[in-house]
Specification:
4-stranded mixed sheet, 4-stranded parallel sheet, 14 helices, Ribosomal Protein S5, domain 2, elongated, alpha/beta
């Protein structure tokens, strides 16, 4: 018998719909998974079979074939676990299949049948809705986020038994959309700064025009303090920008489950020891870097002279285009990167060049070398807006 269940999967930050086709037919007992799945997704049988048994269902004793379509798209993670389990139950006539026609299922199964949330729930729910799903079954911890998708009825599911009961006709409460994240805390406010007239004016111009900014001054001059107050004077996120930022951070796994729309512009400040993959993005499967996590916000690079020249040079193209494009043997991935870059550095290696009371001990060669290595790449980058 054949059953079909809608689901969704991630590749990088991109969510796309997946059709889980489950066929239970004659043959020696066994399990075959096809459809270009990554190692985590290929382990679905080792999670689903114990979950079925511990939830009071009978795992099939015949040959089971599962196809995750489309076959040419690689699927990462365990977001299709619930869909596979429900497909097995429907194909073995343990639950009626009628309600599965316009329903999508997303979530990772624990061995005892509990349902765990997965990262990127918002994007996965959007992908399922675009594919025609009207109802979504997902883990309770991710349901408030999924309910942000207009037109999609979301039912929070605690375990496999609840999902099966709903398919048999029992009612389930619908999840209301999560409220926006807590009101912006009284974060660093530029109004608290006294003096620094030139630097304050530079921050205001950068915020108004979306210009990148380089702050140069001795240690203790307030460069980091000023940079952290820049998000507070940026325009508020539009509804579309808030949804994009929320979707991005959800897929990256940087948010606690159950949160609503992000209302504050992100501020990211990586250490100068960050790797290229950590700053720009990369790895396998691809993950966004700090540059993309600062999308529609501020990326702050303190101690600019300590960053490797090649690392700074890699920022040039993403800052110009507003996106990071990665090409790997396993596939391509694109991450948004429209961010306002703020950098800070000392005027010389010792930091005291131009200080009214302390003298600089650096040679002219040292000062010139620091200036060239730190600002060559950034100075050639264009405004992101």
């Amino acid at each position: 018998m054949l059953a079909q269940v809608r689901s969704a999967a991630l590749w990088g930050l991109e969510a796309f719909p997946v059709e889980c086709e489950v066929d239970v037919g004659p043959g020696l007992p066994g399990f075959v998974l096809v459809g270009f799945a990554d190692p985590a997704a290929r382990e679905v049988r080792e999670r689903v079979w114990p979950a079925l048994r511990n939830a009071g269902f009978l795992p099939p004793d015949r040959k089971v074939t599962v196809n995750l379509a489309p076959a040419e798209r690689r699927k990462e993670g365990a977001s299709c676990d619930l869909a596979v389990a429900l497909g097995v139950l429907a194909a073995t006539a343990q639950v009626p299949p009628e309600r599965l026609a316009r329903t999508a299922a997303i979530g990772e199964l624990a061995l005892d049948g509990r349902l765990r949330g997965v990262r990127g729930t918002l994007g996965l729910a959007e992908a399922a809705w675009r594919a025609g799903a009207m109802t979504l079954l997902c883990a309770a911890e991710g349901a408030p986020e999924a309910a942000l998708v207009g037109g999609l009825t979301v039912h929070p599911i605690a375990n496999l038994g609840e999902a099966a009961a709903w398919l048999r006709g029992e009612p389930l409460a619908a999840q209301a959309p999560a409220p926006s994240d807590e009101e912006p805390a009284p974060a660093d406010d530029l109004a608290e700064v006294r003096g620094q007239v030139v630097a304050r004016r530079a921050l205001e111009i950068a915020a108004a025009g979306g210009h990148h900014l380089l702050l140069v001054g001795p240690p203790g001059a307030g460069k980091s303090m000023l940079a952290r107050r820049l998000p507070g004077i940026l325009p508020a996120l539009t509804a579309e920008e808030a949804l994009t930022v929320t979707r991005l951070h959800s897929a990256a796994g940087t948010r606690a489950p159950g949160r609503g729309l992000m209302v504050r512009r992100p501020f990211r400040a990586p250490h100068h020891s960050v790797t290229p993959a950590g700053l720009i993005g990369g790895s396998s499967p691809p993950r966004p870097g700090e540059l993309s996590l600062a999308h529609h916000g501020v990326l702050f690079l303190d101690e600019l002279s300590e960053y490797r020249h090649g690392l700074l040079d890699s920022l040039r193209e993403p800052l110009e285009s507003g996106a990071v494009h990665l090409a790997r043997a396993s596939g391509r991935a694109s991450f948004p990167a429209r961010t306002l870059l703020v950098t800070a550095m000392n005027p010389c290696p010792c930091g005291w060049l131009g200080h009214p009371r302390r003298g600089c001990h650096c040679t002219p060669t040292q000062r010139a070398s620091q200036g060239r290595s730190s600002t060559a790449s950034i100075s050639r980058s264009k405004c992101p807006h």
